[in-house]
Write a structure and sequence with these properties.
The complex is a heterodimer. Helix content of chain A is 65%, strand content 5%. By secondary structure, chain A is mostly helical. In chain A, strands 2-1-3 form a three-stranded antiparallel sheet. Classes of the chains: A mainly alpha, B alpha/beta.
Amino acid sequence: MTDHSQSPDTQPSKHAGSLLSPSPGTIKRNRAEARFKGYGIAAIAVGLLMLLVLVFTIVSKGVGAYTQTFITLDVELLESKLDKKGNRNLDDIKKVTTFGYAPLIKNAFATKLEELGLETDLKAKDQAKIVSKSAAAQLREYVIANPDMIGKTVTFKFLTNSRVDGYMKGRVSRESIAKDKSISVAQLDFVDQLVAAGVIKKTFNLDFILGADASDQRPEAAGMGVSMVGSLFMMLVVLALALPIGVAASIYLEEFAPQNWLTDIIEVNISNLAAVPSIVFGILGLAVFINYMHLPTSAPLVGGLVLTLMTLPTIIISTRASLKSVPPSIRDAALGVGASKMQSVFHHVLPLAAPGILTGTIIGLAQALGETAPLLLIGMVGFIASNAPDSLSSGLLSPNSAMPAQIYEWAKRADPAFYERAWGGIIILLVFLVTMNTVAVILRRRFERRW
Amino acid sequence: MSFVKMTASALTIAAVSATTAAARDQVQVAGSSTVLPYASIVAEAFGENFDFPTPVVESGGSSAGLKRFCEGVGENTIDVANASRAIKEKEVKKCAENGVTDIIEVRIGYDGIVFASDINANSFEYTPTDWFLALSDKVMVDGKLVDNPNQTWADVNANFPAVDIQAFVPGTKHGTREVFEDKVILAGCETTGAFEHLLANASGDTDKAKKKAAEKACIALRTDGKSVDIDGDYTETLARIESNKDGVGVFGLAFYENNTDKLQVATMSGIVPSTESIATGEYPVSRPLFFYVKKAHIGVIPGLKEFAEFFVADEIAGPDGPLAEYGLVADPELEDTQNAVADEATLGGNS
């Protein structure tokens, strides 16, 4: 026996080793594990670095859009220009177009310079050019709203033109405008004078968040507000349609449907639908909703319908998963005390699955909110978001854009000032997406029960 | 459950609002991305100065816009198509098939096409011949037509620096491409004698068919990567040039004028492109811009005629108007256009 016990003691000593000195095999395994941990940490580090770079780029490029350069001027609303007949008839006042308001701004510069005692060689026309093209429209709107102010002097805060704004933000310099026709070095000198006098100031610009899109000639006036409303109406449509349809479909499939080849096919196709590229839904929307059903183009209702199709599979899959996670004992207990199948589902299973369903819905909505491709085909990308809707039906039916579509549109435009606004828009969109995802996570954390 | 009620009410709202959707009250415009900035400037001013809502302007390219325009008459079709080229006979026929017979053609002005490189890179003084020699698929060498052997700009013209040829030209779906082919490549093809050679060897029954075949062979660009088609917008071309300093791109004049801090413009046949040199016709590469109005929609869509008239009004499209300020070359015959719009004169009509 002793011989027998000795032989394994001497023979495999190469492999076994003692507790104090690990065998080569163990060392190898431990090293492999350490390496694997290292790879994992490296992967996370790379991911985090990417995220940091992304966030840094977005914030550093986009934050400029939230401040804007304004100029304060006292404008005399000359009766001789605005209401020649002098009877304050609104129809006559409306006949004066924005072009008729330009001289008032020129005059306002002359009075301001006199008041400050500044001197410049710049012609009156070139002085007025540092103000945004939106100023005349702003004046006209004010006069039409307050016709009794004609003849008086009113203080206005106008936007400056995008080049002046770029100069204040350091995007435009005296060297970079050497060949630029829309601004001259003399005008920048003039701007410096006005900045020193406190007439031109850079302040926070709420209109970027609440305002409407503007044409290529006045990037300084463009805002996200109206397209945000467009996105909101689309999300309302998606929520109102996708949630009930999705939940009803999944409850039926999960709780009531018999297991046969038909439900199998449906199941497979729902998963397939989730993988369909979103542009396909856009083409479908164009063919069905616009060309066949004659719904209006560019309308958030159509956008919402298209996005509903896109979101449905996401909601159905997550709802079914959360219904499945409710243990069968709950159903059995409900049925055991005499509840009907429907009572057991609606009184017990559905409430327990609700947090999961809501999480899935919010994530589906967040996905739909960031979608641009299908909107291209139903006419929601372009110069659209210029009229704010005034009622529920006009919100759904009158043409509007959506946040990602607006960002895409800005990124294409020629003036570099629009580029900054595109990044600014991305910040707003990201804030929405992060908020929605955070709400989803909180809901899941607080209400989800695990068995 | 309350969500059943919610669905029911949401569906009713959708249904009710869909039926009330019948009357559209804003003008809808689509088409050329070159005309888009001008159209949106006009749309914005129109919305400010009239009681009509601001028109909706979409882009998508001249051909796509005209295709939608020709889909038929009715409120679910667009009222105005923007185009950076004149409507083709084929498209007029297609329109007529779908019931769009009375089309008003409005020329808003001229647009220049410029060649620009990075501000810190080499500057060029081109002639159409240089572009033909640099980009054509086949060029003449010693009286024979051979595959383009030119690798650097110095191969093309001894005055140019020896940097690799890298050109970013608009893709075939753009109206700009057609002008580039006609006014630059074809012109170069003719001056180098390649056109005559191609014409002599062209196959075709008639002289016209031969000429067409020769022209088609002329404008074929090389496919070895020296010439890159850009299907996106000018912003994409600009991005390509910023990442490849030796690249040269084709841009619209208005786009260049908004990015003079990043781009330097090349002269063409010794002329610097500007609104002035295009207006006088000295700068060779320019083209008219148009929009097309569906006459059947005038009186149905509120504000359509007013919009068309406003677009070509002196204070908008004139030499001192906002469009000229943005880069459009004003049309010297604007008054004729204004009268034509006022009379609603249609294409091929008697008026």
